[in-house]
Write a structure and sequence with these properties.
Blueprint lengths: L2 H11 L4 H7 L4 H9 L6 H11 L3 H4 L13
Helix pairs in contact: 2-3
């Protein structure tokens, strides 16, 4: 699974819209849509915010691992 599929899947599993996630990470809905479509690369700071929000580690959100571990506490 690619990281694009992963972020879309996480959003859908949590019954959230692109608009809701965009607001949470402080980007426009169109920008978030472009992230999910792969039109724009997702900046690392946004991936970190998404991982924190969904409480999953970076390996899971980027598609490196299929094991859903919690985001490391800060």
């Amino acid at each position: 699974m690619t990281y694009l599929e992963r972020i879309k899947g996480l959003r859908e599993d949590n019954d959230l819209t692109q608009t809701q996630i965009a607001k949470i990470i402080n980007v426009a809905q169109t920008t978030y849509s472009d992230y999910e479509k792969g039109k724009v690369r997702i900046p690392i700071d946004i991936l970190i915010e998404l991982a924190k929000f969904y409480n999953v580690d970076m390996n899971y959100i980027t598609g490196v691992s299929t094991v859903k571990k919690h985001f490391p506490p800060t």
